[in-house]
Amino acid sequence: MIQDFWASIWKGDQALFELINGRWTSPFLDSFLPWMRTSEHWIPLYVVLLGYLFYKWGWNAWKWLIAVAITISITDQISSFIFKPLIHRLRPCADPAMLHQVKLLIAACPTSFSFTSSHAANHFGLAMFIFMTLQPLLKKYTYLFFVWAGLISFAQIYVGVHYPLDVITGTVIGIVFGYTGAKLYTRWQPISFKN
Questions:
Q1: Residue 35 and residue 33: Cα distance in Å, rounded?
Q2: What is the pLDDT tens value at each position of the chain, 195 positions in all?
Q3: H or E segment at 126?
Q4: How far, in Å, are 38, 43, 47, 147, 162 from residue 114 at the CA level?
Q5: Exposed/middle/buried for 39, CB within 10 Å: 0-12, 13-18, 19+?
Q6: What is the four-CA torsion angle of 159, 12, 82, 151, rounded to 10 degrees?
Q7: Does the residue 194 lie in any domain?
Q8: Looking at the domain assignment, is residue 10 inside a domain?
Q9: With left for phi above 0 and alpha for psi between -120 and 50, is residue 90 left, alpha or beta?
């Protein structure tokens, strides 16, 4: 009974993957989403954000940076070193049953397991942390970080390296631990900005 339930979940997950990776596509997305998921492309955003925080907080911005690093380390550890070795789900681009259907849009299929998506866990963890801690400074623009994390996470499916359920579960991990990390940070370091 339980095996039938999980088999139907996996089958539906594969079917949705095939739609996103194989049918809901366009030449623009084929170029944009592989670029979007590449971490190095976001270094200028991180540099600008940190520069602004040092301007507003002074050296107290180091405390924020340390808290972010700890939060992202936790989301990454949970995704990469707990779920992936425990579940052992092959990535669609590495699964012999799926290989002929996958349109791989990056140079090589990653060798790690698929469940959960560390990209989703880490980026949604960061988005939630920013939303919870920087809203007084960035106002409504903090919501854009969820859009950013969502696009990066969706790109993981689109380029052929994750199933939708991998991304959804990674998103939940990121939101939960991003929220928890932000709550602990604001108790340790009440938020205030220089005028």
A1: 5
A2: 667 777 788 889 999 999 999 999 999 999 999 999 998 999 999 999 999 999 988 888 999 999 999 999 999 999 999 999 999 999 999 999 888 889 999 999 999 999 999 999 999 999 999 999 999 888 889 999 999 999 999 999 999 999 999 999 999 999 999 999 999 998 887 665 444
A3: helix 118-138
A4: 17, 25, 30, 22, 6
A5: exposed
A6: 40
A7: no
A8: yes
A9: beta
Q: What is the CATH number of the domain that holds 7?
A: 1.20.144
Kindly report the pTM of this predicted structure.
0.92
Structure tokens at 7: 């088999």
* Among 69, 182, 75, residue whose Cα is nearest residue 136: 182
- How many beta carbons lie within 10 A of that of residue 97, not counting itself? 9
